[in-house]
């Protein structure tokens, strides 16, 4: 009876605890619900429902690792059929994506929840084709309030295909009513290179986002800006692709100042800023690279995004002269992607910075031998290194070894230019010959079995013409003649080619040139119908005819009788001074400088100023007789006129020769130059 009473009490307690769990679950208080579930498990540790509730409470509280531990501990009770979704979800949130996929695939029954999670897992594994099929199936077979979210995920898959796999996205017919759908559509357009259209979509997404969030009174402006950060980040990326790096950099920095919680967004923005800085502003790049090392970044970005960030870290290490770090990062990248070209190019660039050019060329040659698919790009880099070393001939040999590029016009032009620089004309002509032969063989293969004559391709004819011009320039007239004859044969109406051919024959065989000149069209057929009047009156014409109405009187007769008469320039009348008086005779000495005129008296200055500092120490500039005030009235003027022989008295205070002024000189030696006014004549 006591055992039965105890059992009844435990059942009553369990019932009360279940009521508590139910109430807490409805209120969202999963921490309190977990306490009640633990009490139930103390009563019955193998209660399947209690264990399931405990796992759900732990998941709701974010304790995914502990929840997975409970599942793995009670595998006998919590079988895959019972707890498959919860287990897969915990593995997904713990970034154990492969394990989550196995758990989903091993489930006996594929519920709608498992299918939703399956689509998310496939997206994280970058299996976009399977993911697209999974979401299409979900949208087709589900009808609930989560349809908009499924369409958003579907558009995200299409955007990823367009961006990372360069797949042309199909029109899903989704109505872009939310900013998430507009954003994903813009990402798909970026993948196709339609940057202007993508920018318009992003602007629409920004507008929809503001409208949607502003309806909630609890959302602040800071919350709206934080939500818009990812949209602004894509806008800045488009600006960077369009070459508007200053605008992009400004927008990137604005986003970083907001300090968004999305470490993936911060890592992408920091990486893009580093690519803008390149080898400049290295200090800022070293600060930004720390954002790419944040915890959890590897789970937020795609493999190609992570790879691009690692490449940029290696390049930054090279620019900051961290040679060991650069080699370490590039070697790690090469081990992860053995066929990728960029790690090898970074290693070669680092060796070149260390002046080890031969080692860099050897490294590139080894990679080209191991990976023939990338040999062309590698050999182009090797040729560039040889040119930098001054080994132009070796660079030409490397370029000519790239069979798939030998016949390309750009390659032919580069080789001919390089050989001409080295004055190796024979090799340059050989390059032309090989390219022309390649096009002849290609055309023969293309026209095999055809009876209709097909003319040579424009590229082929262009190469022949360039070869002929090159040979004429370097004196290979006979070889040039054969090329020109081939061109003329292809187009007998080509007057330009015929003229070149006649010009070449005139230097070798004048008689042949005369014969060919008969094929030139007559001057009548070559006359151009030109409206002379319209040409003369056109904008920019150097000669404008005079209108007939302006030719009157004597001028008209002169033009009719004498032809062109040179116009005489009219002399301008000189301007007279304002104070000119025709009744007064002009000064005959007006053409002489003022100091050379007979009536020049010198400048009037203070006596003391003229006398101080004009001689040796203790001497005076004038005789004692000149200082006698009683004799000043009858004394003659001290400044004789020019031309008069003024005698110097031989007294004890005579000025030495080195301090003596020339006769008739003014008191000071300073001469002020005054600019002559235009048209004015001095001396009146």
Features:
single chain, 684 residues, mainly alpha, Serine Threonine Protein Phosphatase 5, Tetratricopeptide repeat, extended, disordered C terminus, signal recognition particle, ribosome binding, TPR repeat, Signal recognition particle subunit SRP72
Question: Secondary-structure map with pairings?
Answer:
Elements: H1 2-27, H2 30-43, H3 48-60, H4 64-73, H5 80-93, H6 97-106, H7 112-124, H8 128-141, H9 147-164, H10 179-192, H11 195-214, H12 221-241, H13 245-257, H14 263-277, H15 282-288, H16 303-319, H17 323-336, H18 342-353, H19 357-370, H20 375-389, H21 392-400, H22 409-421, H23 425-446, H24 458-473, H25 477-490, H26 495-508, H27 510-517, H28 523-526, H29 532-536, H30 553-561, H31 607-611
Helix pairs in contact: 1-2, 2-3, 3-4, 3-5, 4-5, 5-6, 5-7, 6-7, 7-8, 8-9, 9-10, 10-11, 11-12, 12-13, 12-14, 13-14, 14-15, 14-16, 16-17, 16-18, 17-18, 18-19, 19-20, 20-21, 21-22, 22-23, 23-24, 24-25, 25-26, 26-27
Keywords: Coiled coil, Cytoplasm, Endoplasmic reticulum, Repeat, Ribonucleoprotein, Signal recognition particle, TPR repeat
Protein name: Signal recognition particle subunit SRP72
Coiled coil: 97-152
Quick overview of this protein structure:
This protein is mostly helical and 684 residues long.
Walkthrough of the structure:
- This protein has 684 residues and is mainly α.
- The chain is built from 31 helices and no strands.
- Helix 3 packs parallel to helix 5 and helix 21 runs antiparallel to helix 22 (409-421).
């Amino acid at each position: 009876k006591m055992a039965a009473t105890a059992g009844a009490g435990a059942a009553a307690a369990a019932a009360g605890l279940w009521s508590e769990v139910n109430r807490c679950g409805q209120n969202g208080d999963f921490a309190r619900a977990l306490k009640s579930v633990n009490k139930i498990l103390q009563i019955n540790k193998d209660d399947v429902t209690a264990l399931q509730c405990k796992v759900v409470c732990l998941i709701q509280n974010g304790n995914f690792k502990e929840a997975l531990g409970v599942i793995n501990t009670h595998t006998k009770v919590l079988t895959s059929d019972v707890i498959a979704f919860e287990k897969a979800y915990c593995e997904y949130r713990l970034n154990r994506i492969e394990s989550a996929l196995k758990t989903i695939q091993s489930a006996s029954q594929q519920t709608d929840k498992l299918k939703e999670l399956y689509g998310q897992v496939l997206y994280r594994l970058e299996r976009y084709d399977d993911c697209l099929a999974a979401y299409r199936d979900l949208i087709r077979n589900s009808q609930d309030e989560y349809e908009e979210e499924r369409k958003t995920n579907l558009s995200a898959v299409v955007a990823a295909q367009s961006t990372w796999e360069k797949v042309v996205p199909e029109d899903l017919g989704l109505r872009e009513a939310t900013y998430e759908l507009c954003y994903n559509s813009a990402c798909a357009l970026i993948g196709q290179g339609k940057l202007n259209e993508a920018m318009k979509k992003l602007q629409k997404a920004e507008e929809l986002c503001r409208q949607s969030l502003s309806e909630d009174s609890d959302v602040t402006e800071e919350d709206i800006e934080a939500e818009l950060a990812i949209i602004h980040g894509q806008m800045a990326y488009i600006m960077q692709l369009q070459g508007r790096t200053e605008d992009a950099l400004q927008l990137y920095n604005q986003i970083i100042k907001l300090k968004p919680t999305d470490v993936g967004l911060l890592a992408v923005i920091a990486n893009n800023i580093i690519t803008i800085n390149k080898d400049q502003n290295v200090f800022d790049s070293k600060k930004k690279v720390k954002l790419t090392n944040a915890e959890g970044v590897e789970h937020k970005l795609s493999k190609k995004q992570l790879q691009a960030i690692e490449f940029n870290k290696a390049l930054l290490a090279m620019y900051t002269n961290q040679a060991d770090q650069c080699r370490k990062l590039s070697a790690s990248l090469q081990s992860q992607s053995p066929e990728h070209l960029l790690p090898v190019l970074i290693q070669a660039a680092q060796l070149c910075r260390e002046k080890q050019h031969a080692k860099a060329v050897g490294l590139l040659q080894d990679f080209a031998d191991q990976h023939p698919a990338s040999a062309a790009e590698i050999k182009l880099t090797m040729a560039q290194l040889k040119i930098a070393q001054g080994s132009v001939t070796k660079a030409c040999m490397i370029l000519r070894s790239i069979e798939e590029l030998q016949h390309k016009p750009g390659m032919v032009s580069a080789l001919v230019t390089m050989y001409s620089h080295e004055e190796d004309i024979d090799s340059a002509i050989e390059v032309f010959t090989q390219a022309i032969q390649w096009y002849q063989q290609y055309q023969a293969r293309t026209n095999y079995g055809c009876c209709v004559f097909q003319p040579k391709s424009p590229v082929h004819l262009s190469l022949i013409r360039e070869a002929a011009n090159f040979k004429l320039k370097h004196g290979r007239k006979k070889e040039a003649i054969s090329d020109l004859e081939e061109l003329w044969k292809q187009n007998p109406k080509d007057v330009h080619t015929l003229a070149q051919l006649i010009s070449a024959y005139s230097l070798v065989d004048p008689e042949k040139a005369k014969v060919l000149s008969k094929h030139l069209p007559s001057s009548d057929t070559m006359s151009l119908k030109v409206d002379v009047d319209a040409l003369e009156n056109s904008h920019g014409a150097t000669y404008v005819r005079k209108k007939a109405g302006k030719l009157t009187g004597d001028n008209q007769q002169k033009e009719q009788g004498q032809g062109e008469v040179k116009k005489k320039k009219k002399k301008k009348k000189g301007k007279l001074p304002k104070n000119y008086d025709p009744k007064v005779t002009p000064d005959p000495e007006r053409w002489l400088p003022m100091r050379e005129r007979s009536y020049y008296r010198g400048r009037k200055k203070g006596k003391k100023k003229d006398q101080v500092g004009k001689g040796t120490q203790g001497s005076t500039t004038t005789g004692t007789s000149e200082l006698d005030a009683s004799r000043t009235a009858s004394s003659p003027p001290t400044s004789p006129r020019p031309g008069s022989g003024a005698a110097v008295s031989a007294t004890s205070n005579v000025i030495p020769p080195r301090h003596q002024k020339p006769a008739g000189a003014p008191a000071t030696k300073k001469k002020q130059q005054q600019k002559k006014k235009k048209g004015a004549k001095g001396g009146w």
